[in-house]
Amino acid sequence: MAKRLLEVENLKTYFRSQGQVFRAIDEVSLHVDENETLGIVGESGSGKSTLGLSILRLVPAARNPLIAGRILFEGRNLLTLSEREMRSIRGGEISMILQDPMTSLNPVFTLGAQIEEAILAHKKTGAQNARSAAIEALRQVRIAAPETRVDSYPHQISGGMRQRVVGAIALASRPRLLIADEPTTSLDVTLQAQYLQLLKDLRAAHGMSLILITHDFGVVARMCDRVAVMYAGSIVETAPVREIFHRPRHWYTAALLASMPKLDHPRGHLPTIDGAPPRLNDLPSGCKFAPRCAQAQSTCFMQMPERQIISPGHDIRCWYPREAT
Amino acid sequence: MTSPLIETRGLKKHFRLRKPLLGATSVSVLKAVDGVDIQLGANETLGLVGESGCGKTTLGRLVLQLETPTEGAVMFEGRDTASFDRKERQGFRRNVQPVFQNPYSSLDPRMTVGRIIAEPLTVSQKLKKAEVAERVADVLTATGLIPSDAQKYPHEFSGGQRQRIAIARALISRPRVIILDEPVSSQDISIQAQILNLLSDIQARMGVSYLFVAHNLATVRFMSNRIAVMYLGVVVEEGGSDELCAEPLHPYTRALFSATLPGDPDAPHSLEALQGEMPSPLNPPTGCRFHPRCPLAMPRCKESSPVLKPASPGRSVACHLFDA
Predict the structure, then answer these.
(1) Residues from chain A contacting residue B258 (CB–CB below 8 Å)
(2) Residues 42-71 of A with CB under 8 A from B
(3) For residues A275 and A33, what is the distance between their CA atoms, to the nearest angstrom?
(4) Percent of chain A beyond pLDDT 70?
(5) SS3 for A219?
(6) How many Å lie between the alpha carbon of B213 and the closest alpha carbon of chain A?
(7) What's the CA gap between B132 and B127, in Å, rounded?
(8) pLDDT tens column, A236-263
């Protein structure tokens, strides 16, 4: 049986601002096994990025967060570690790639210096070794002529290359888990295809696990083993990727999939989800999706459905699940 | 034959970029649009698709007269827009309206929604106050908002509702053409479908034509009767949307299709469709602009640049493979 690497139990991340509470993450539970890619998919404001930041305890303190629950990484609860212990995990055993490669690289340092910094933070080694490791890291992310590129500055390379350098920094310490938050959203389709293939190859070569945060079901279909669908701070459905696409049991998942234009779709009308997601400081008292759900009944408006397992590896939060067709 | 509503002939836009260089200035020329012929008929949608930097937005701005062409012409109902006098120009602006990508920056936060929507009318037509209010209420209803929204300010609306306001503003002068530049790419998936349906409904009801500029093939496919694919300032392929999607001919179009991820884990798909990145439009390759990345490039592709010509009925391709 696959070994469990990360287990999140009942995670809550609330923000307090001007006397109001924003429930950005609301009782989220999930797990990631070794050598597995978990997709976290949702619309903007669903809490998917906050979830990634919460795992690494990188939620900005300025937002006045309140975090509760358990985040077990190889059996250790990250929420109870000291800041010093946490620093060795961040960028060491767990790395993160953010969406915008323009802001995640420092413009005044060479690519080599930035990769070496990541290496030296977690490993006692000489400057010469760090430099050759940096060149190797660039070669791994398929940067041509890494021996000369290592001395380039971020503005001297293209956007596609910058995102690969961000990947090289994240992977330099050989993490067990990589969290990639919308890694290809700023890239064009042909570059996106190249980058996703690279991520896939590196994940397999390093034997690491990947949490891929995205709003794009196309990326999910191509990359993930399992998928968690988020809505207004909660995971409404978790299932193996084929189940999500072919037998979604939550009405939100099904409606979202149906509303995407497809390449083999003729012109006409798209099925839509009426309304907009709720505000996080004013969530409905029952199921958060009920006000937009075509199937909602009175129970749905009164009580939040518990997480229930409906088939092996498939769980949902819904009072009246869709039939498995 | 009647002339198309909008037609571009050999349209070019070159930007001259000046850079100070040791006391002197070096001038380089960025060929954003470099010889484009497109036609847009009545009650039709032409999709303009390509990756960032291909010139699709500049082409839209040229048609809107927000940029002056370096060469070539934009024709409206068969007449060159460059020859228009003041009055004709006003009429043109009433008839050709824009909707931009980001409804957060395209709506003035200090104006009420009613004033924002009425602005195209107040600058070009002398209408009575009551008439203006009535037309504002009409377009608000047509875009799924309510007449009383006219009193509110943009910050009171969500992103999807703001895009509806932008569409209402484009509709108020009863235009014949709307240039839609990435109208849904800043929206969430569940909101995108709402806006796309709204645009289809408006077209069916009012018979307006769309130039739909976007990078997402599936969205363009859903909206368009015909599609033009752009690469580095030129159109490389054009045709009916069903035919083009069923059998893309140009190697770049084919690469775009194979790089577009299907929403199905079991769909056949090759991720690594295309090597390299789009070259800088400051220094485009010689010959066919696509040849350095083309898997089927031949020696002549380096030397001579292919022109867009008919490959089959209703279908044009700019590629030496179809020169026969």
Answers:
(1) 193
(2) 43-44
(3) 36
(4) 98
(5) helix
(6) 15
(7) 6
(8) 999 999 999 999 999 999 999 998 888 7
For the whole model, what pTM was predicted? 0.88
pLDDT at B258 over 90: no
pLDDT at B86: 92
Tell me the torsion sign for CA atoms B139, B143, B149, B154: negative
Residues of B in contact with A272 (CB under 8 A): 190, 193-194, 197
Average pLDDT over residues B228-238: 96
What pLDDT digit, counting tens, does each position of B288-312 carry? 999 999 999 999 999 999 999 999 8
Reference A57, options A45, A46, A70; nearest CA is: A70
Q: Token digits for A114? A: 């930035």
> What's CA B134's distance to the chain center, in Å?
30
Name A255's Cβ contacts closer than 8 Å, sequence gap at least 6: A271, A273, A294, B190
**Structure token pair of residue B68:** 């002056």
How close, in Å, is residue A132 to chain B by CA atoms? 25
Which chain B residue has its CA at the smallest distance from A217's CA? B263
What ipTM was reported for this prediction?
0.82
A241 touches chain B (CB under 8 A): yes
Tell me the C-alpha distance between B103 and A215, whole Å: 20
- Work out the mean pLDDT of chain B and round it to a whole number: 91
Contact at 8 Å (CB) between A149 and A157?
yes
Is residue B146 very low, low, confident or very high in pLDDT (cuts 50, 70, 90)?
very high
Interface of A with B in 257-286 (CB under 8 A): 257, 259-274, 276-277
Does A204 contact chain B (CB < 8 Å)?
A: no
pLDDT exceeds cutoff 70 at B271: no
- pLDDT of A267 above 80: no
Element (H, E) at B73: strand B71-76
Q: How far apart are CA A231 and CA A112, in angstroms?
A: 40
Size of interface A-B (CB pairs under 8 A): 129
pLDDT of residue B112: 96
Closest to B315 in 3D by CA, of B207, B189, B226: B226
Choose, out of A190, A201, A259, A282, the residue to mutate when testing the contact with B (most B CBs < 10 Å).
A190
According to DSSP H, which parts of chain A are helical? 48-55, 83-89, 101-104, 111-122, 127-140, 146-149, 159-171, 189-206, 217-223, 241-246, 251-258, 298-302
**Among candidates B52, B160, B271 on the partner chain, residue whose Cβ is nearest the Cβ of A188:** B52
> Which residues lie below 8 Å from residue A164, measured CB to CB, with a gap of 6+?
A141, A142, A143, A195, A198
Rounded Cα distance, B22 and A34, in Å: 57
DSSP string, A124-161: ---HHHHHHHHHHHHHHTT-SSHHHHTT--GGGS-HHH
How far apart CA B221 and CA B240 sit, in angstroms, is 10
CA atoms within 13 A on the CB side of B21: 7
- What's the Rg (C-alpha) of chain A? 21
Q: Which residues are CB-neighbours of A160 under 8 A, at least 6 positions away?
A: A187, A191, A194, A195, B277
Q: Are A228 and A237 in contact (CB under 8 A)?
A: yes
Residues on chain A touching B271 (C-beta within 8 angstroms): 193-194, 196-197, 200, 222
- A218 at B interface, C-beta within 8 A: yes
Q: Check A193 against B271: CB less than 8 A apart.
A: yes
Instruction: Read off the pLDDT band of B123 (50, 70, 90).
Output: confident
Q: How many CB atoms lie within 10 A of CB B21?
A: 9
